[in-house]
Amino acid sequence: MTEPKLTLHWLNQSRAQRVVWLLEELGLDYEIKPYKRDAEIRAPKELADVHSLGKSPVLEIEYPDGARKTVAESGHIVSFLMRNFDKNNVFKPTSEQEFDDVEYYSLMSEGTLQPALSFIVVLRRGGEKAPWAMKSVIRTYNDKVMEAFNFPETLKCFDLLEKRLVEKSKVSTELYIAGERLSSADILLSFPVVEQVVFGDKLGSAFNKEEYPQLVTWAKQIRARPAYIRAQEKTKKFG
Amino acid sequence: MTEPKLTLHWLNQSRAQRVVWLLEELGLDYEIKPYKRDAEIRAPKELADVHSLGKSPVLEIEYPDGARKTVAESGHIVSFLMRNFDKNNVFKPTSEQEFDDVEYYSLMSEGTLQPALSFIVVLRRGGEKAPWAMKSVIRTYNDKVMEAFNFPETLKCFDLLEKRLVEKSKVSTELYIAGERLSSADILLSFPVVEQVVFGDKLGSAFNKEEYPQLVTWAKQIRARPAYIRAQEKTKKFG
């Protein structure tokens, strides 16, 4: 073994898919260890044996000398892979401004957009589990919380992204969030924006595709990338 | 003007306090533009004029040549300041492992711990605003959501941090989360861990100080730092 061995602990319908995409963009060899969400739509307990927070993605690296490293947290995994396995510098920012933009949008994805979206799942699940007699009250309450918090917080991020892409569309038909090429900003935003909202139903009728034409174009371009398609193909069998 | 002019848009009871602390640790000159939460405990509308997401902290930089830059998102502001204004390299990681640890714990703070904690505020506010006749049902529901999601997600992070600090306490009485000195991990975790939980009441009785002795020691050490105390002094008058 001359190269480090990469194993990705992958969970269905999770943020892990982005790491498969990045591994494909980098042209790396890797193994996928698949996990399935339980009846409660939670990560299974076995994931806690891999990393104590019990979440996915987690990347394990086994080096040729036998040393092992466990890397968790999406943003950190993406950054770690780019720092250590981007032999052709396809992800290396070419200016300080590009570095700043990549970092801002990557952190905005993980620290602002994703949390507001994730909690919608928690609330909807709570609504489903509420006793029959209280379901109506709970659902009305959930809707109010989402209307007051989750939807506006999420849509403010979407407005910001659309505005940025409108500017970028004036100089190029190839759309990227941060610089002039693919970056961790596109990769990290692909799960919440592309999969959960533009092609998913996470915001329901609160999201109107017609108001976000450039974001939809960017989402379609991402879904058409050969590496993205390969990533989907490779994980399809795991459900 | 020979140095860039730094202005921090600061909101009471927000993540912005950490940036004041970092500015003090770096020994920089800066101005604070204070904002106050409205009756709904939300950021006031004027913050949206500074940055479209309408949140705090936001850092504005005016360069000697008149160029201006607006930097948002806590993790990015902290990283930006360390990259551009750490003249004595007091925050520069000294090894790859230290870099990785700093990045992991910084992102864990913003992407995992902080979101689970923040939503407690949203739920509690929702409970207060519920119509009188439904208050009891809503409060029971909120408690169940917090018990099923927010508390365990948060405590898993706290367990991980305590375990790490227990290891570190075996080799040093000065405790830091990532490496052997202060890093963005300590700075970013100071708001959720030190202020919101250890010395705050965000987890209520779900958090038992006695189970987290090293985390409490670390929190006390942070609060005793001269730069941290100066930061508190400087913002006290803004409420």
From TrEMBL, chains A, B:
Cited SUPFAM superfamilies: GST C-terminal domain-like, Thioredoxin-like
Task: Say yes or no: keyword Transferase present.
Answer: yes
- Please give the name of this protein: glutathione transferase
GST C-terminal domain location: 95-239
Q: Name one GO molecular function term.
A: glutathione transferase activity
Name the InterPro entries on file. Glutathione-S-Trfase_C-like, Glutathione-S-Trfase_C_sf, Glutathione_S-Trfase, Glutathione_S-Trfase_N, GST_C, Thioredoxin-like_sf
Q: Which Gene3D superfamilies match?
A: 1.20.1050.10, Glutaredoxin (3.40.30.10)
For this UniProt entry, which segments traverse the membrane?
none
Please give the coiled-coil regions recorded for this protein.
none
Q: Which reaction does it catalyse?
A: RX + glutathione = an S-substituted glutathione + a halide anion + H(+)
Entry keyword set: Transferase
Tell me which family the UniProt entry assigns to this protein: Belongs to the GST superfamily.
* UniProt domain GST N-terminal: residue ranges: 3-89
Q: What is its EC number?
A: 2.5.1.18
Q: What class of enzyme is it?
A: transferase
Q: Which gene encodes it?
A: GTT1
Q: Which GO terms describe its cellular component?
A: cytoplasm
